[in-house]
Structures are given as C-alpha cells and as structure tokens.
C-alpha cells in the first residue's frame, strides 16, 4: 500500500511538473510538445487550450496541421462524435496527402458509425454517409491495416439496414397489408440477399425457434423468395379484381 501511494505521488509530481515547464515566450515546438505531453496524460481540456493557442499564434507553422490532428484525436478519445466528425473531415480535406490520412479517414468513418443508433427501429439516414466514408477508405487504402475492421463495421451497418427493411415489411404484413410489404421484401432480396441466413441453418431449427428467429432476425433466402412470390400473386389478384 505504501509503495502504491509513493508511486501515485511521483506520478502526481510528474504531471504537475509538465504543467509548469512551459516558458513564457515559448516557441511553436515547445508549445506543441507541452500540449502533446498533456494529451498523453489525458489532460484533454488543457491540451486543447494549448493546441488551439498554437494554431492561433503560429498559424503558418508546420505544427499547426499536427495540432489540428491532435485536436481531432482528443475529440475522438472523449467520444465527442460530432466534433470528431467535423475535425477529421476538415483535416482530411485540407491535408489529403498527410501520412496519417489512412487513420484519419478510418476515424472519420468510425465517428459517424458511433453516431448511428444500434437498433433498426430508429432513424438510419446517417448510415449512407457512414458507408460512404468506409467505402472511400477501402478505395483509397486497399492495403490498410484497418481493412479488416472497416469490413466488420460495414457488415454491421448493412445488417442494420437489412433488418430495417424486414421490420417495415413485417409491419405491413401485421397490419394486414401484404401488398404494401412487397417493395420492402423485394429490396431485401435485391440489396441484402448475401446477408440472409442459409436455408440449411433455418431447416435445423424447431417450429418455435423458427418463429422466434423470424421476429428477431432476417428470414432465409428460401423463405423470403416464397414470401415474395405469394405477395406478387396477391398483388396480381388485386389488379384483376
């Protein structure tokens, strides 16, 4: 316990030291290094003050753009997604050839992702822009170390969108409006068929499991095709009557 207290005291002194070492007439390099030390110690609010001061006082310094990136990273670390989106987006536009733009674009897309709702019953309009930046990342950085993560996040978004179409289709079916459900069923087949579970997996489920799965997840390809055919037949019958 005594050793722990001593260690905590040393860390406290180190942190305090870093806050007092900045000279009054500091250079851009000194200001930047001081801000970086604060950032690394998670003194985010104070680090932001110094990074913004650097941008204001040394606008044409080569470190000004690095301060922009550091500010974006702080917003990301603090999970301030709106500010992170704005900061990363601005940085990406201003410095498209920056050596860290791979990470910048990934964090930009990820910031949008974190702004998305986690369930299909919410507004998913932001998914379009989120997918745009993930796809842009794949296009610009095909060999990126983030590639696997990008694909995984894309899959999550597409699954969410597919469940949204199925939710709306089920709503119309439950309301006794099968023809109104048809466009959503067809869209699900056309755009998200690769996400649907295999028929074999569905066949292995019991009756109650199938019913529960249909409500909680996506239908199998076969079930969806059968449903689409029935709905098309109903639509044709309605036209003839």
What do you see in this structure?
The chain has about 240 residues and is mainly α. It has helices spanning about 1-20, 30-40, 45-55, 65-75, 80-95, 100-115, 125-140, 145-175, 180-190, 200-205, 205-215, 220-240. Helix 2 (about 30-40) packs antiparallel against helix 3, helix 4 (about 65-75) runs antiparallel to helix 5 (about 80-95) and helix 5 (about 80-95) runs antiparallel to helix 6 (about 100-115). The chain starts with a helix and ends with a helix. Residues about 5-20 and about 210-215 have low confidence and may be disordered.
Descriptive keywords:
elongated, mainly alpha, 12 helices, 241 residues
Report mean pLDDT, rounded to a whole number: 87
What oligomeric state is this?
A: single chain
List the total number of helices. 12
- Roughly what fraction of the amino acids lie in strands? under 5%
Largest sheet: none
Extended strand count: 0
**Helix percent band:** over 70%
Q: Roughly how many Å is the radius of gyration?
A: 26 Å
Given helix and strand content, the structural type is mainly alpha
Distance between the termini: 85 Å
The sequence of SSEs as H and E is: HHHHHHHHHHHH
Q: Given the C-alpha coordinates, what overall shape results?
A: elongated
Poorly predicted spans: 3-19, 208-215
